[in-house]
Write a structure and sequence with these properties.
Largest sheet: none
Order of helices and strands: HHHHHHHHHHHHH
Structural class: mainly alpha
Strand content: under 5%
Radius of gyration: 23 Å
Amino acid sequence: MAPYLFVGPAVLLLVAFGVVPILVAAGVSLTDLNIRGLGDPDRIEFVGLGNYLKLADDPAFWSALKVTAGFVVVGVPAIVVLSMAVALLLHQSGGRLARVLRSFYFMPAIMAVVAISLVWGYLLNTQFGLANHFLESIGLDPIPWLSSPGWAKVSVGLVAVWRATGLNIIIFLAALQGIPPEYLEAAAIDGANAWQRTVRIVIPLLRFATFFVTITTVINWLQFFDEPYVLTQGGPAGATTSISLYIFQQGFRQNQFGFASAGSLALFALIAVVTFIQLRVRRRQDDD
C-alpha cells in the first residue's frame, strides 16, 4: 500500500482539479446555460450537440483557430531554437558572468504574467511608449505596435517568446550538463571542431530535452491567453484573438456558458490530438 499512499494525494488533486472540471464542462456544453440559468436551474435547457454545431458555423471560432495556429507555427520553433542557442552559449561560457546571465534569462519565467504584459503595454504604447520615443529620437517614424493588426501579432508574439524562453533555457542547460564529456573529448581528438561537435554530438543528444520543450510549448501556445488579453484584448479587429480568449469572451462577456464549454472541449480535443501525434512521432524516432 505504500506506493499508493504516496501517489494518492496527487491522484486526488488531479481528479478534483483536472478530471472533474472536464466532465462538468462536457455536461454544461450540452445545455444552453447562461447567467440567468445559474440562479434558476429551470431555465437551463438541454440542447444536445447544438452548441458544437453552432461552434462549427461560427466564423469567429475559425478565425481564432487560425490566429492560434499562426502563433504556434511561428512561436514554437522560435522558442525552441532561441532557448537552445542561449543554453549552448551559457554552457560554453563559465565563471560568475554565466551564473548571473542564467538568473537574468530565467527572471521572466518567475514574474507575474499580468505585470509583465502591462509593462510591455506601456513600452509599446503608440503615443507615449518608450519604444516609439526611441524611434523618434533617431529620426524614424513611430510604429503602431498594438493598434495595427500585423504589428499587434508581432508585438504579442515577441512578448510571449521573451517570457517563455527562460524556463526552457534552464531545461536545456540541465540536459547539457548531463552529456558525458568523454564524447566531446573523443571527437576533439579525432579532429572535430567546435561547430562539428555541437551539430553532430551535442544537438542529437539533446533530442529528449528538445522533444519535452517542444511538446510543452505547443500545449502552452494552444492555450495562448495572457499576453493577448492584457496587451490587446484580442484586437485590433480580432487579429490577436486566440481560441482561449475567444472562449473567455463567449463565457464571461456574452454569458453563454454552454457555448463556451463546447469551445473548451473542442480545444481540449485539439490539444489531445496534437499531443498524441507528437508522441507517436517521438516513439517512431526512438524505434528508428
